[in-house]
Amino acid sequence: MSAPEMISMGCRLNIAESETLRQNLLASNIDGDNLIIVNSCAVTNEAVRQTRQAIRRAKKANPEKNIIVTGCAAQVDPAMFAAMPETSAVVGNGDKYDVANFKLGLQSNRPDIRVSDIMRITETTPHMVSAFADRSRAFVEIQNGCDHRCTFCIIPYGRGNSRSVPAGLVVDQVQALVDQGFQEVVLTGVDVTSYGPDLPGEPTLGMLIERILKHVPALPRLRLSSLDGIEIDDRLFDLLTGEARLMPHVHLSLQSGDNMILKRMKRRHNREQAIDLVGRLKTRRPEITIGADIIAGFPTEDEAMFANSRSIIEQCDIVHGHIFPYSPKKGTPAAKMPQVDGQAIKDRAKILRGIVEKRAQSWRQSLVGSRQSILAEMSGDAGYSEGFARIQLDEPVSKGQIVPVDIIAINDKQLIGRVAA
Questions:
Q1: Residue 63: predicted pLDDT
Q2: Is 19 exposed, middle or buried (0-12, 13-18, 19+ CB in 10 A)?
Q3: How far is CA 323 from the centre of its chain?
Q4: For residue 113, what pLDDT band results from cuts at 50, 70 and 90?
Q5: What b/e sequence results for 130-139 when a residue is b if at least 16 CB atoms lie within 10 Å of its CB, and e otherwise?
Q6: Which pLDDT does position 244 carry in this prediction?
Q7: Per-residue b/e over 44-66, b at no fewer than 16 CB within 10 Å?
Q8: What is the Cα–Cα distance from 206 to 144, expressed in whole angstroms?
């Protein structure tokens, strides 16, 4: 028996969970030869549209196979996916680690819906601790769900409330991955900076990182997924700015650069706090690169408010930008607010992407002539630096290994590197 084909949409957490799910099904002797699992994303309407498109495309290419849809979008709106003729079953986020839900025994032409109440889940189960996706960088899930209720976000209803993986399990899994040869581990979750208050002793993310670095000394590189800046305490700040094994790449969940919009989003930080945080990070560790999520065209956003989002890209020196055109999600408070014109949203998103790309290109140019430490991808002909710059190599190296590289040129947007002598 072989593992089912996995189609993973959306975030790194989905990628990680897809690999865990694949391994679980393979170990449970589920016949995956005639099965395709689509791990859906609900973060935007476009993500849902792309998920539906992926389902149709998969069925067209494999008409004989059964398609089971799981993930956030399946959890939030199972009936919509069950109504698709290509779908054989819909499995909720809280149900996808019960392998029995992937055993098809359909007695009718209607898909099974196997979706339970995600809000009743209070623990992150051990088999959700880790997974890896691209075989050179490993992902370890340390947390799931979210206790915050940002007005634009549907994800808490797809993931449930925040729950953390016990630190000992995380450390054990990181050690196991290092033993398998992985050189970089990414800690991932829905809201990783909220890690710990539901665990005995209420550990923090900083405490978890300290424990990993202490007990897994052979781990060369530890990277964090998206952070909520308001939750970066002194311990985590000191690690980000002073620990060489923690990568100098901070991706912030900013969402907007305007204080009124942030308030209407129910975000817990303001513009000034974000700018101050980045300034302090880069003062202590100048090589830190900043990424950010920013929503274009949130309800009520006028030109002056949009100007604040434009300028915060400059003031926070954002070189890794995830720009999302706002789209109203049914069931969220923001969907009931006065909406911005659709074309204006698209135009604003394009402008924000252009500003980020201009800064990114300037940053890439500044790296020419420098020496960078890169983690080689499985192809062996490219890799990512500590600051997450992608570097194309002029000749292949050993896959999955960390190598020093001299940046010798830039070709359009692509950095070119040569393995250092």
A1: 92
A2: buried
A3: 14
A4: confident
A5: bbbbeebbbb
A6: 97
A7: beebbebbbebbeebbeeeeebb
A8: 17
- Decide: helix, strand or coil at residue 323: strand
Give percent of the chain with pLDDT exceeding 90.
66
Integer Cα distance of 232 and 139 in angstroms: 21
Name 148's Cβ contacts closer than 8 Å, sequence gap at least 6: 156, 191, 194, 266, 268
Contacts of 274 (CB under 8 A, 6+ apart): 229, 252, 254, 257, 312, 316
* Two structure tokens written together for 89: 């079953």
The whole-chain average pLDDT of the chain stands at 90
pLDDT digits (tens, 9 = 90+) for 198-244: 999 999 999 999 999 999 999 999 999 999 999 999 999 999 999 99
- Chain centroid, CA 334 distance in Å: 23
Alpha-carbon Rg for the chain, nearest whole angstrom, is 22
Note the pLDDT of residue 108.
47
Q: Are 56 and 49 in contact (CB under 8 A)?
A: no
HEC states along 351-395?
Answer: HHHHHHHHHHHHHHHHHCCCEEEEEECCCCCEEEECCCCEEEECC
| Rounded CA separation 338/325 (Å) | 16
Closest of 170, 161, 243, 237 to residue 197, by C-alpha: 161
> Between β-strands 221-224 and 184-188, what pairing exists: parallel, antiparallel or unpaired?
parallel
Picking from 120, 106, 72, 70, the residue whose alpha carbon sits closest to that of residue 90 is 70
Q: 250: Cβ–Cβ under 8 A, 6 or more apart, which residues?
A: 224, 227, 240, 281, 288, 289, 290, 291
pLDDT band, residue 106 (cuts 50/70/90): very low
Q: Which residues pair with 6 in a beta bridge?
A: 37
Tokens, residue 407: 């940046």
Which token pair is 277? 């945080």
Return d(Cα 196, Cα 208) in angstroms, integer: 9
DSSP, collapsed to helix, strand or coil, labels residue 131 as strand
Place of tokens 């000992």: 168
Q: Mean pLDDT lowest for which of 20-24, 182-186, 296-300?
A: 20-24
Amino acid 123: pLDDT:
64
Type of residue numbered 324? F
